[in-house]
Amino acid sequence: MAPSTAPTGRDDSLTSGPMRRILASSFIGSAIEFYDFMLYATAAAVVFSEVFFTDLSPAIATFASFGTLAAGYVARPVGGAIFGHFGDRIGRKGVLVTSMVTMGIATTIIGLLPTTAQVGTVAPVLLIVLRMLQGLAVGGEWGGAMLIALEHAPGGKRGFAASFANLGAPAGSMLAAGAVAAATLLPDEQFFAWGWRIPFLLSVVLVSIGLVIRLKVAESPLFQRFEAEAQRRRIPIVDVLTRHPRNLVLGILVAMSQLTVSGIASVWAVSYAVQQGAEKTGVLNSKTLAAVAMFVMCLVSARLCDRFGRKPILTAGIVAAMLFAFPLLLLVQSGTVVGFTVAVTVGQGIQGVILGPLAAFLAELFPTAVRFTGSSLCFQAASTIGAGFTPMIASALVAATGGIALLGGVWIAALLVCLLAVLAAAEGRRRDLAAIE
């Protein structure tokens, strides 16, 4: 018998009232959480080395700033495991509300932190703790937001529906880069004294809006159908590790492809371009434009993956990333806003091609009873390796060699491994979610 493509949710169209509300919740909530998370990434590139690591040389301060950034990525798979456990046992909706509150509290407190000049080493320690709380929160956010949309959607439109959670990343990046760019219009003295705090404090307003939307969304129908089975799974992470290890490894490697692009193009490149002489506000404005390109390409590729399959679109995106790796690095090295704009816009556009089908690809690797845990572990572990440490590794490789050649070679090699993982994985477009074992 051919695999079923029958709808797995209660709505037969993405345009029905309930489905529109679900997609809006997935997108807006995810955008707000990624605003908070990527706000830190942007500030790590242009602010924190001047505020929390003032006793270090510029190169070491930048490396230390990216180190605190990595701490959040290390916490993401832990958050995926914790929130995934409860998402697979008691439901997706409650996890989404909890993760959003946690993120809002952590981000707001970062905006109120005293500097190293005021309280000494306590400041960077607190910064790391709060960054890890952010990581825990976003670790639970992505899986829940993605599954609420995917598990309500008709079978033939799962890829597009699931992409709304992924769309939160570029949308949040746009908001974060735009907010910090606006703050940099202040004189440097005022910006580093208090201006950088304003985007963090805005999180209170955004999270409040997100909570109102999230509380109105219904629980996943697939989870409700299999709730008794989910309750019998005492520890979902053990089930994932013992029964689905191959899919877990393949999912992590595939997800790393777009997250290495994120770490280099949207984080490391910002700091490096500014160091090479590019004007700071122009660079941040370019990130906003790049996020638009990523947003559009994510939508397009998500639509295409429902028609042609997840694997062909993922393959096309990874091959494009490999071909553009050295051109991107050379453009960033030019030290001009124009060069950076072209590099990051094309780079994040390619990232969007990979990101579009990625959510559905990962979700279709696991059964309903452990889908939250499995897909979250894939995405969040990849974020730790691919995005969390990439800026630090890139900074170290460039500092060690004085150029970009080694960085480009290592990046292409990593993408090649990701491509092989795509080719080894099963195509999930026509799989019946309810029948996955």
TrEMBL record:
<feature type="transmembrane region" description="Helical">
    <location>
        <begin position="288"/>
        <end position="305"/>
    </location>
</feature>
<keyword id="KW-0472">Membrane</keyword>
<feature type="transmembrane region" description="Helical">
    <location>
        <begin position="22"/>
        <end position="48"/>
    </location>
</feature>
<keyword id="KW-1003">Cell membrane</keyword>
<feature type="transmembrane region" description="Helical">
    <location>
        <begin position="404"/>
        <end position="426"/>
    </location>
</feature>
<feature type="transmembrane region" description="Helical">
    <location>
        <begin position="248"/>
        <end position="268"/>
    </location>
</feature>
<feature type="transmembrane region" description="Helical">
    <location>
        <begin position="312"/>
        <end position="332"/>
    </location>
</feature>
<keyword id="KW-0813">Transport</keyword>
<protein>
    <submittedName>
        <fullName>MFS transporter</fullName>
    </submittedName>
</protein>
<feature type="domain" description="Major facilitator superfamily (MFS) profile">
    <location>
        <begin position="22"/>
        <end position="426"/>
    </location>
</feature>
<feature type="transmembrane region" description="Helical">
    <location>
        <begin position="60"/>
        <end position="83"/>
    </location>
</feature>
<dbReference type="InterPro" id="IPR020846">
    <property type="entry name" value="MFS_dom"/>
</dbReference>
<feature type="transmembrane region" description="Helical">
    <location>
        <begin position="95"/>
        <end position="113"/>
    </location>
</feature>
<feature type="transmembrane region" description="Helical">
    <location>
        <begin position="125"/>
        <end position="150"/>
    </location>
</feature>
<feature type="transmembrane region" description="Helical">
    <location>
        <begin position="198"/>
        <end position="215"/>
    </location>
</feature>
<feature type="transmembrane region" description="Helical">
    <location>
        <begin position="338"/>
        <end position="365"/>
    </location>
</feature>
<dbReference type="Pfam" id="PF07690">
    <property type="entry name" value="MFS_1"/>
</dbReference>
<dbReference type="InterPro" id="IPR011701">
    <property type="entry name" value="MFS"/>
</dbReference>
<dbReference type="InterPro" id="IPR036259">
    <property type="entry name" value="MFS_trans_sf"/>
</dbReference>
<feature type="transmembrane region" description="Helical">
    <location>
        <begin position="162"/>
        <end position="186"/>
    </location>
</feature>
<feature type="transmembrane region" description="Helical">
    <location>
        <begin position="377"/>
        <end position="398"/>
    </location>
</feature>
<keyword id="KW-0812">Transmembrane</keyword>
<dbReference type="InterPro" id="IPR005829">
    <property type="entry name" value="Sugar_transporter_CS"/>
</dbReference>
<keyword id="KW-1133">Transmembrane helix</keyword>
